[in-house]
Amino acid sequence: MPASPLRAPGTSLALALAALFATAPAFAIPDRREQLQAEVGAPCDLQCTVCHTTNAGGGGTATKGFVQELLARGFDVGSAASLVDALAAMEGEEVDSDGDGAPDVAELSAGDDPNSAGGALCGAGAPATAEYGCARVAPRGLPAEGAGWLVAGLVAVAALRRRR
Fold first, then answer.
1. Given CA atoms 129, 130, 134, 139 in this order, what sign does their dihedral have?
2. What distance in Å separates the CA atoms of residue 83 and residue 51, rounded to the nearest whole number?
3. Cα–Cα distance for residue pair 18/6, rounded to 1 Å
4. Closest C-alpha to 70, from 110, 108, 97
5. Rounded to whole angstroms, how far apart are CA atoms 14 and 119?
6. What does the pLDDT look like over 77-92, one tens digit per residue?
7. Cα–Cα distance between 4 and 82 in angstroms, integer?
8. 3-state secondary structure the chain
9. Residue 111: left if φ>0, alpha if ψ -120 to 50, beta else—which one?
10. Phi/psi of residue 36, each to 5°?
11. CA 20 to 30 Å from 160, out of 36, 71, 113, 143?
12. What is the DSSP letter of 111?
């Protein structure tokens, strides 16, 4: 009976390398709600829906007008300083995402929704509280550096097998 391919020399090493490098770590994106609340002086805890379409948040859901205006002014969710700068620019320009005549920063300071004319973020009519935050998690997959190590490991195993 022929030997199992899984018992061939170097196969265990190749399988171990493949298992080690075939997945990428998940990277959480910082949740900037507390910083946003502090910067604008909002009277309540802000929800993910200030920027995202749902309180679950996640990739591709930060599409609301307010966050689009932040992004247009250099906001990068990974940088706390960029939020400060983008908010200052929006305040200086009196940006009004929902077109109701009240600037976004003033609306947030009053507990109003900058994305919806007459919408509330605090008190009666406010959205339900997010329980888990709205930080996004990067999709899992094979990272570029993992692929390089995997290929290097497989080449090394192949070279060892050829010598025997």
1. negative
2. 13
3. 14
4. 97
5. 57
6. 899 999 999 999 999 9
7. 57
8. CCCCHHHCCCHHHHHHHHHHHCCCCCCECCCCHHHHHHHHCCCCCCCHHHCCCCCCCCCCCCCCHHHHHHHHCCCCCCCHHHHHHHHHHHHHHCCCCCCCCCCHHHHHHHCECCCCCCCECCCCCCCCCCCCCCCCECCCCCCHHHHHHHHHHHHHHHHHHHHC
9. left
10. -60, -45
11. 143
12. T
Provide the β-strand partners of residue 137: 28
pLDDT in tens, 125-159: 555 554 445 554 444 444 555 566 667 777 878 77
Has this prediction a pTM greater than 0.70? no
Q: How many residues does the chain have?
A: 164
Query: What's the rounded Cα separation, in Å, for the pair 158 and 44?
Result: 61
- The two tokens of residue 20 are 């080690």
Tokens of 160: 């060892």
In angstroms, the Cα distances linking 31 to 59, 66, 141 are 13, 16, 23
Collapsing DSSP to helix, strand or coil, 118 comes out as coil
The whole-angstrom separation of Cα 1 and Cα 13 is 24
The letter for the amino acid at 130 is A
